[in-house]
Design goal:
Length: about 230
Amino acid sequence: MSESEQKRGSAYRILIVDDSPEDRHMYARYLERSRLHHYTGIEADSMAEALNLCSASAPNCILLDYNLPDGDGLELLKQLADSCGNLPVPVVILTGQGNEEIAVTAMKEGALDYVVKGKMTAEALCRTVHKAIEKAELINTIRRQQDEKDTLIAELRDALEQVKTLRGIIPICANCKQIRDDKGYWLQVEAYVSRHSEAQFSHGICPTCIETLYPSVSQVVLKNKSVPEG
C-alpha cells in the first residue's frame, strides 16, 4: 500500500450506473484519485442490473446516469425508495449540459446532488460524492435520534397511563376524615388513595391514639417501642 493510500480515510463502494462503458471507467478512475477516502467502483449498465447490485453489493453511494436503456434515473430512484421506504444510500445524478432541470427533479425525488458530465473533473466528482455520503450519514443519524426520541416518548406515555396521581383539591370530612370522590361517594382514606394512586397501606396505631384507646398499657407499649412512632 502506498503512502497516499495509507493516509486515506474510510473505504466506500460506489455503484456507477451508466450505459456507456467508457464513461463508467472514467468515473471509476476519477474516484480512485480521491485523497479523502478509498473508493471502489461497482459498475452497472442498466436499471435492472443496478437494482440487483444494490441488494447484492450494498454500495455506499450511487452515481446514476439519467438515461438508461431500460428506464431513466427517476424511475430507479422511485423503485429504490419504494423497496426500502426511503433511499437506502445517497444518490448523485449524472446529467448532461442543459439538463439541470432533470437533476433538480431528481433531487426532489431523493437524490442528494448532481454533477454535469461536460463539466466534470476528478476533484469535483470526488468532492460531490464525499459530501453526499456525509449528508446521508447526517440524515441517518437524525432519523435514528428521532426514532429513539419517539420510542422514549411512547414509553413515557405508557408509563404515565399506568401511574395514577392525586392532584387538585380533595374534599375531606373534618370529623371522620372520609374523602368524597368525583361521583359524590364518601370513601375511607385508604380506599380513596388506593384507587387514585399506586400506594398501598399497612396499618398500625400512632402514640397519640394508643394513649387514648389503651391508656392502661400505653406506657408499657411505648416504652418497649412496640408501636412505631409516626
